[in-house]
Design a protein that fits this description.
This protein is an alpha+beta fold. Helices cover 26% and strands 34% of the residues. The protein contains nine helices and 25 strands. Strands 3-8-11-12-10-9 form a six-stranded mixed barrel. The protein has a four-stranded mixed sheet with strand order 2-24-25-22, covered by helices on one side. Strand 11 and strand 12 form a beta hairpin. Helix 5 crosses helix 6. The two termini are 47 Å apart.
Length: 401
């Protein structure tokens, strides 16, 4: 007998529906789009199931894209409610679970700046059929020393070679540099650029690894000679530096900030549309030096923030999992204002953001998978009482007062 899908529970026990919510299956997305068009009377139950998925997903943080695991999490969530009463009808159990999940959102989700009241649910995310935006992908452009530009993606694996003999390997979305020995050629610089909506990884000639976020560029030599190793970053990247005490590693940014490294893991966010350049230390030790000579030495789990406005250099405790979430395929937000949230989405989905009114003073805490489509990501944010509409490659934010 065909499943009737009459209540939220029916959807949440279906593997295809969970894959649709997780954004991991394009076939499932097409199936449920067609199914809703053919069964419009089921929209309320479908929407309730989506809401339950979203709030449980947000409550659990980094949810693995595994149907069985999610079902287990959801089952535990419902079991906690049934344990409170011996005899409860099935529908009441699910309504109770959904209510408790929404309480979790009220505590940890969208918050008004001046109070902790959860606004009424906003307009649903709307996107014309075929007008959704896919997530970013593994792609970049490499500019060689002679100015030749090479487009990169995760499928092309043919290697390259610089005129100084350096071999550049390509495999599974990363570049690997193998510097030529005993070369007398002058230093050659390459530039790796990820577009908005792209990410890439490069292994430098010394074995250091660099993961580049969307809308970023890294300029570096094809071999490190002399007493220092220096690269130049614009945007955001995570560095895992090969230790060489006799040849310290430096990262320089456009505003003159320099990070001195001795074998360590750290993240630098230096986007020009952000108010500060942030260096966050995961392990090891770094010294952050501003253009005017001010400097601080970071311990693990600390962030140095250099203001673009007044040049102040401050140190604060860091949430490592949040700062490096992009590298692990997630967006992590912790009391971030809507402008910060939308800037991150705009870079990854390569879209522009427009507000229909004054930018609301609201903050968000939660997690979103970077492999979600744009409409799926926005659906998670709609609990702020804000509606979103996708128009081509533009997000129109409908601010509800």
């Amino acid at each position: 007998m065909e499943h009737q899908f009459n209540v939220a529970e029916d959807f949440l026990l279906d593997d295809s529906f969970l894959r649709f919510c997780m954004g991991t299956d394009e076939a499932a997305a097409r199936h449920w789009e067609a199914w809703l068009a053919a069964n419009p009377e089921k929209q309320p139950a479908f929407a309730e199931a989506c809401r339950i998925f979203d709030v449980v997903n947000g409550r659990q943080g980094r949810l693995d894209a595994e149907v069985d695991r999610f079902r287990g999490i959801l089952g535990d969530h419902v079991a906690m409610q049934t344990a409170k009463t011996a005899k409860v009808r099935r529908m009441y159990i699910w309504r109770t679970a959904a209510a408790c999940a929404f309480i979790a959102v009220a505590v940890a989700g969208w918050k008004m700046w001046n109070n902790n009241i959860l606004p009424s649910p906003g307009k649903p995310v709307t996107a014309a059929k075929g007008n959704d935006v896919l997530p970013g992908k593994t792609t970049a452009q490499l500019v060689l020393g002679d100015g030749t530009a090479v487009q990169l993606d995760e499928h092309v694996q043919q290697g390259l070679q610089e005129k100084d003999g350096t071999r550049i390997g390509r495999s599974k979305g990363q570049l690997t540099y193998d510097a030529a020995a005993n070369t007398t050629e002058e230093t050659i610089y390459n530039t790796l650029t990820t577009p908005r909506g792209g990410e890439y990884k490069v292994i430098l000639p010394d074995g250091s690894q660099v993961w580049m976020n969307a809308g970023s560029s890294l300029r570096f030599p094809t071999r490190f000679s002399g007493t220092e190793r220096t690269v130049y970053l614009n945007g955001e990247a995570y560095f895992d530096i090969a230790p060489k005490a006799a040849q310290p590693f430096f990262v320089e940014t456009k505003n003159g900030m320099k990070v001195a490294v001795l074998g360590t893991g750290f993240n630098i966010m230096a986007y020009e549309d952000e108010s500060a350049v942030n260096t966050t230390l995961v392990s090891g030790k770094v010294k952050v030096i501003s253009a005017d000579g001010k400097n601080v030495t970071l311990a693990p789990a600390q962030t140095a923030s250099l203001s673009r406005g007044n040049g102040q250099l401050n140190v604060a405790a860091a949430d490592i999992s949040k700062v490096t979430a992009w590298k692990e395929g997630m967006f992590e937000f912790d009391d971030d204002d809507i402008s910060t949230v939308m800037r991150q989405l705009a870079r990854w989905y390569d879209v522009e953001v427009k507000f229909s009114g004054p930018v609301p003073d609201k903050h968000y805490t939660g997690s979103i998978r970077r492999q979600s489509t744009l409409s799926q990501a926005l659906r998670i944010l709609k609990t702020a009482g804000i509606g979103f509409k996708i128009e081509g490659r533009q997000i129109v934010v409908d601010v509800q007062q």
